[in-house]
């Protein structure tokens, strides 16, 4: 595969997170020290200014909001008229120093993509820890009060479902209807879309599969459900991923596996080695066996199912 013109810039600003979820492909957690520096963030913004084809900046982590450069990246990206997505775990809204986070996101018109792996406390807390469900519901209520998820408000609120086990997500449209019914009826909450994302067989989730003796079976599930119709829509076709240290990757999953971006000279694959993200168009995309996770069933990407 080769990359089309790059329209989405995904920035992983570090691995520090206030949660340590069982499925996390970043292996993020409260004790992880890796964080994008101010100098690296500045270089990313310089390249963004030189890349008018970039329409979306997708900021992730860890909990990206815990990086001290997060708000600078948001403000300056929005000042260029670029759509900004914050990959938010919801409970970060209650961390020290984040009391005004929801208001900041709303004032900048940031699209919030929020993790909520189920609409029941039992399933959420089995994956994310005790107390996470109630805090997540409280955070969604706060975002709703600011207009998030309200039709016509311009404030997008999408939720992310990922399976709590070694199986493919159910059909996205049906599950979205279930989420809207359950969250609406039980808590009066609203959101725009539900995105279903397959658990990738890498990092923390892969370690769990190996411990339980299910890694081979899960890989067989992914391979046996390969769907060629998903390939044209894969996120790596129009996205480039930047690591906290400025290294370039074809996607966030390759980043966690440290698989160098395709098309650049080995050892010269950082934001210091390009003049524009347009330089990466037409380059070959590095793939490996974990890529079956994005092509199984209805497909999976940071934007949910592919069809």
CATH topology: TIM Barrel
Low-pLDDT stretches = none
Q: Give the end-to-end Cα distance, rounded to a whole number of Å.
A: 19 Å
The whole-angstrom Rg is 18 Å
Share in β-strands: 5-15%
Overall pLDDT: 92
What is the SS-derived class? alpha/beta
Given the C-alpha coordinates, what overall shape results? globular
H/E topology pattern: EHEHEHEHHEHEHHEEHH
- Name the CATH homologous superfamily: Aldolase class I
Strand runs, count: 8
Any idea of the CATH class? Alpha Beta
Going by CATH, the architecture would be Alpha-Beta Barrel
Binned, the helix content reads 25-40%
Number of domains: 1
Give the helix tally: 10
Largest sheet entry: 8 strands, mixed
| Cross-sheet strand order for the largest sheet | 6-5-4-3-2-1-7-8
Description:
The chain has helices at residues 38-49, 70-79, 101-107, 121-128, 132-145, 172-187, 203-211, 215-224, 252-257, 292-295; strands at 8-12, 56-60, 83-88, 111-115, 157-161, 193-196, 239-242, 248-249. The protein is of the alpha/beta class and 307 residues long. It has a single domain (8-295), classed as TIM Barrel. The chain has an eight-stranded mixed beta sheet with strand order 6-5-4-3-2-1-7-8.
How would you briefly describe this protein structure?
By secondary structure, the chain is α/β, with parallel strands linked by helices. The protein has helices spanning 38-49, 70-79, 101-107, 121-128, 132-145, 172-187, 203-211, 215-224, 252-257, 292-295; strands at residues 8-12, 56-60, 83-88, 111-115, 157-161, 193-196, 239-242, 248-249.
């Amino acid at each position: 595969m080769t990359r089309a013109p790059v329209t989405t810039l995904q920035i992983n600003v570090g691995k520090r997170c206030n949660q340590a979820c069982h499925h996390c492909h970043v292996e993020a957690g409260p004790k992880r020290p890796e964080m994008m520096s101010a100098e690296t963030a500045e270089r990313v913004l310089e390249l963004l200014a030189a890349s008018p084809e970039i329409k979306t900046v997708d900021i992730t982590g860890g909990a990206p909001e815990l990086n001290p450069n997060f708000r600078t990246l948001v403000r300056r990206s929005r000042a260029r008229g670029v759509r900004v997505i914050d990959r938010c775990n919801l409970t970060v809204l209650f961390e020290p120093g984040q009391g005004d986070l929801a208001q900041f996101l709303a004032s900048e018109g940031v699209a919030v993509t929020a993790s909520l792996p189920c609409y029941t406390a039992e399933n959420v807390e089995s994956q994310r820890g005790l107390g996470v469900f109630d805090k997540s519901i409280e955070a969604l209520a706060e975002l709703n009060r600011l207009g998030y998820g309200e039709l016509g408000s311009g404030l997008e609120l999408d939720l992310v479902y990922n399976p709590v086990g070694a199986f493919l997500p159910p059909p996205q449209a049906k599950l979205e209807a279930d989420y809207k019914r359950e969250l609406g009826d039980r808590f009066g909450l609203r959101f725009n879309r539900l995105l279903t994302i397959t658990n990738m067989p890498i990092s923390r989730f892969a370690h769990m599969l190996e411990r339980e003796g299910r890694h081979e079976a899960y890989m067989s599930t992914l391979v046996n459900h390969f769907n060629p119709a998903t390939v044209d829509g894969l996120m790596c076709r129009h996205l480039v991923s930047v690591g906290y240290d400025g290294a370039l990757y074809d996607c966030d999953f390759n980043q966690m596996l440290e698989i160098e971006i395709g098309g650049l000279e080995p050892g010269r694959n950082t934001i210091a080695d390009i003049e524009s993200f347009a330089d990466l168009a037409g380059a070959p995309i590095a793939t490996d066996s974990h890529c079956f996770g994005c092509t199984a069933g209805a497909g999976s990407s940071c934007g949910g199912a592919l069809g």
